[in-house]
Amino acid sequence: MKFIDEATIKIYAGDGGNGIATFRREKYEPMGGPSGGDGGRGGSVFFEADQNLNTLVDYRYTRTLKAQRGENGRSAECYGAKGEDLILRVPVGTVISDKATGDSYADLSHHGDRALLAKGGKGGLGNIHFKSSINRAPRQCTKGEPGEEFELYLELKVLADVGLLGMPNAGKSTFIRSVSAAKPKVADYPFTTLHPNLGVVRVGENQSFVIADIPGLIEGASEGAGLGHQFLRHLARTTILLHLVDIAPFDPAINPVDEARAIVNELKKYDELLYQKPRWLILNKIDMVEDVADKVKAFVKSFGWSGPVYSISAIKGVGCKELTYDIMTFIEENKKIQNEIVISE
């Protein structure tokens, strides 16, 4: 299935049914009073988060969605039936906003979250409501109100604890294959990853975290070059970013330090908040270099890095286990801090 993480749709709530003007015509009441019933309310449009979905592809080709109209009123004071509500299921992590203004309407971040986006119109009134002491046979009735309509922008931001950053061919997909059960495509050419992949990393019996692998960034990504900038939104909810660097590139002309700086610059241009997230430096492919300690030390010095540094070989699993344990510890400590902040507020 093609991965779709954004869509634009138009939604229409159902119009209310019309009220009617009728009169009782029975055997012993040939000239009875008013008996027109009210119209039914139109159906509303709801969005609901469903953990069984992982793409917005259903809304890429079906752009217009309408709830059912309310039924018209009937004689004998019978009210019209309410229009059936339209429930649109979307992946967990979907953000819904107004296409024209950009105002956010809903952020469905948990399974079962539901949001009412368009209310159905009220039903019209039948002539029974217009009867009075001076108007015994009213012929007035009202039409149903139109339902709300909106043009919406749907944006999927996957829910992951850890996000992977890096140039194409840095080894991000190999790393996620090494530490989780996810099996993204791996090949010896750039841009192998064309859409985000999620993997669950199990550290202990009741300890696990979700890691997201997005297509690699290249220089100029914030201006639209390459694929990675389209998927940076998926890192917005992460707790920590892992910046993977290929420390042993095939092309001798490639400088790993320059590539690492390019990634950081693109991240800063794209989103300052994303740039401020905790970020660890992961030097990959140490199995392909000699004097690893010296190579790592020289890289860190040239890059001017003062944060956490890990050297791994994703393809052989060297250093990956220790890294996942440290990530789990960091995530748990961060959750404790966030809970304390919420309690203090």
3D structure, described in words:
- The protein has 345 residues and is of the alpha/beta class.
- It has two domains: 6-156, Distorted Sandwich (Spo0b-associated Gtp-binding Protein, Chain: A), CATH 2.70.210; 162-344, 3-Layer(aba) Sandwich (Rossmann fold).
- 20% of the residues lie in helices and 23% in strands.
- The strands form three sheets. A six-stranded mixed beta sheet has the order 10-11-9-12-13-14, sandwiched between helices. It has a five-stranded mixed beta sheet with strand order 3-1-8-5-6, with no helix packed on it. It has a three-stranded mixed beta sheet with strand order 4-2-7, with no helix packed on it.
- The longest helix is centred in the last third of the chain and has 25 residues, at 320-344.
- It starts with 5 loop residues before the first strand and ends with a helix.
- Residues 185-193 and 224-228 have low confidence and may be disordered.
- GO terms for molecular function: GTP binding; GTPase activity; magnesium ion binding; ribosome binding.
- It comes from Candidatus Methylopumilus planktonicus.
Please summarize what this structure is:
With 345 residues, the chain is α/β, with parallel strands linked by helices. Helix content is 20%, strand content 23%. Strands 10-11-9-12-13-14 form a six-stranded mixed beta sheet, sandwiched between helices.
User: The biggest beta sheet, please?
Assistant: 6 strands, mixed
What is the helix fraction of residues, given as a range? 10-25%
Report the CATH superfamily of the largest domain.
P-loop containing nucleotide triphosphate hydrolases
Terminal CA distance: 44 Å
Q: Low-confidence stretches at least 5 residues in length (pLDDT < 50)? A: 185-193, 224-228
